[in-house]
Amino acid sequence: MNKFLVLVFLIIVFSCNKAQKEETKSEDLIMVKQSEMAALMLSMYGVNQANKSLILKGEKPKHFPNQFFNIHTANLTEPSDRNEAFKAYSDFYLKNLQALYNTTDIDSLITKHNNVINSCITCHKTTCVGPIPKIKKLLIQ
Ligand code: HEC
């Protein structure tokens, strides 16, 4: 497969407004600009992936990623997604993340990490189902 096809494939697999985007031509797909929120989500994904490896080694994640508070302000691909429920899910996610970083109980790290990931999934079920299988890989079984 050439690089162009791989890119189109990745955009279709990982983007949220799947049905809508599939109707557009592939040339348009390449032009789709990544929203601030999509970029923030990818960095949230990266940090949680790093946390998972740390926790599996029995270590506690250290510096709370304050930039994740931008979930309340980052521009969305679908601005109408930001309703009351979205704000509540954002707070729920940040609260679980703080509980993980603030804990002194090493034995609870796995549970607290999984609470964070489940709060990602809870919001995604209502706004953006595409990445859920990828997010589930962050859970510690
Ligand atoms: C409050 C709701 C909410 C929470 C909580 C949330 N997400 Fe998202 N996520 C979204 C929305 C909405 C989008 C689509 C963003 C856009 O396109 O503007 C998205 C997009 C994504 C994407 C796709 C980015 C791309 O390539 O376009 C990934 C991956 C992702 N989220 C992972 C996560 C992870 C991991 C967490 C938890 C650490 C998380 N999300 C928490 C709502 C949420």
Can you describe what's shown?
By secondary structure, the protein is an all-alpha fold. The protein folds into two domains: 1-32, no CATH class; 34-136. Helices cover 62% and strands 0% of the residues. The chain contains seven helices and no strands. The protein has helices spanning 3-14, 18-22, 26-31, 36-56, 84-102, 109-127, 132-136. α4 (36-56) runs antiparallel to α6 (109-127) and α5 (84-102) runs antiparallel to α6. It is globular. The relative contact order is 0.14. The model is unreliable at 19-24 (pLDDT under 50).
SS strand fraction: under 5%
User: Which parts are unreliable, with pLDDT below 50 for 5 consecutive residues or more?
Assistant: 19-24
Q: What would you report as the Rg, rounded to the nearest angstrom? A: 16 Å
Q: Structural class, from helix and strand content?
A: mainly alpha
- What ligands can be seen in this structure? heme C
Mass-distribution shape: globular
Helix content: 55-70%
Number of strands: 0
What is the terminal separation in angstroms? 34 Å
Average of per-residue pLDDT values: 87
What about the largest sheet? none
